[in-house]
């Protein structure tokens, strides 16, 4: 577990790279691959700036990503698979790389998409940018698979050293471009990019990604969240952005301030429904905790339930994984 936590921290690291350590890692990776060390190492502030730097490189030669990263990784994986057997390899991966895979893969995909979005001005240029991105070694965002090999051989030491000390990098025959790490990273408890008052991921050159609970949003959209009104939420045409607005504003507050009417009530609570154009209805059950707070008041909770819910009891039962007929609490708390 400590090993996984160490690599989780690598994947989430922010702040200036240790350039000397990263460059030594690059040279070691080249030597381990049987290649001459690169003649030039160029630093960039972000993956976006790195792609632009790659496009301007002259005399760099062909990409050696296959020799430096892909080939050694495949050989080490095959070695460990043969050594541990299929079940042993599956157990190792489950205990290491699998713990980090989803969050690091999703973050890398978001960065790629952000770079493409900012650098592609004409549709015909998109393939060129994507081809440069395919040449990248992901540095800190290769943490998932590097964690599986940590302490199990020296072949990948150079790659691991770069990952611990820098961001993405581009290896070519005679030159390397290395990106700095981000200066800010904000995620929710599920590991998704998430911030309501600024960029969720930011680099020192201004390249940034904005997101709310994992969903990409425009930068200017976040500026609007603090001044939301029920009417503004209602007229938003983009269903995904409207959901973000509702989450930020609060479903209960929206219900209270939008003039919504209850559609059913029984001994378990009150069922409310919000009809949203172009999206499924938002249906919630208002319930009151039967146990008083220390000050004698009773707390109200709002439970979101499936759109097909027709009664308050059905909704409350659903939150317990039960059908309406089976939900007969002996004592409510």
- Uncertain regions: pLDDT < 50 for 5+ in a row? none
Structural class of the secondary structure composition?
A: alpha+beta
Cross-sheet strand order for the largest sheet: 9-10-11-12
User: How many DSSP E strands?
Assistant: 12
Cα-based radius of gyration, to the nearest Å: 26 Å
Number of distinct helices = 13
Helices and strands, in N-to-C order? HHEHHHHHHEEEEEEEHHHHEEEEH
Q: How many discrete structural domains?
A: 2
Largest sheet: 4 strands, antiparallel
- pLDDT averaged over residues: 91
Distance between the termini: 37 Å
**What amount of the residues lies in strands?**
5-15%
Helix content: 40-55%
Shape: elongated
Organism: Streptomyces agglomeratus
Pfam families: DUF6745
Protein name: DUF6745 domain-containing protein
């Amino acid at each position: 577990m400590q090993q996984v936590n160490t690599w989780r921290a690598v994947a989430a690291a922010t702040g200036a790279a240790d350039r000397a350590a990263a460059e030594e890692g690059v040279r070691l990776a080249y030597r381990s691959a049987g290649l001459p060390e690169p003649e030039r190492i160029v630093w960039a502030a972000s993956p976006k700036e790195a792609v632009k730097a790659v496009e301007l490189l002259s005399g760099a030669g062909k990409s050696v990503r296959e020799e430096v990263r892909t080939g050694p990784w495949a050989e080490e994986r095959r070695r460990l698979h043969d050594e541990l057997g299929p079940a042993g390899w599956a157990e190792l991966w489950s205990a290491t790389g699998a713990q980090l895979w989803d969050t690091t893969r999703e973050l890398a995909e978001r960065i790629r998409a952000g770079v493409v979005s900012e650098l592609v001005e004409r549709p015909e240029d998109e393939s060129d940018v994507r081809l440069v991105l395919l040449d990248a070694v992901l540095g800190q965002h290769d943490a998932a698979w590097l964690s599986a090999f940590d302490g199990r051989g020296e072949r990948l030491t150079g790659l691991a050293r770069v990952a611990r000390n820098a961001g993405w990098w581009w290896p070519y025959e005679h030159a390397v471009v290395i990106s700095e790490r981000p200066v800010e990273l904000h995620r929710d408890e599920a590991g998704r990019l998430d911030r309501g008052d600024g960029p969720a991921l930011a680099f020192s050159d201004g390249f940034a990604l904005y997101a709310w609970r994992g969903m990409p949003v425009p930068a200017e959209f976040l500026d609007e969240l603090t001044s939301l009104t029920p009417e503004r939420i209602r007229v938003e045409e983009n269903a995904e952005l409207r959901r973000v607005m509702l989450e930020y504003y609060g479903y209960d507050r929206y219900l209270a301030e939008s003039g919504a009417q209850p559609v059913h009530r029984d001994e378990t609570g009150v069922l409310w429904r919000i009809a949203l154009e172009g999206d499924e209805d938002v249906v919630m059950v208002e319930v009151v905790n039967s146990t008083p707070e220390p000050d004698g008041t009773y707390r109200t909770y709002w439970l979101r339930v499936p759109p097909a819910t027709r009664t308050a009891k059905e909704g409350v039962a659903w939150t317990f994984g039960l059908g309406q007929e089976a939900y007969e609490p002996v004592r409510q708390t």
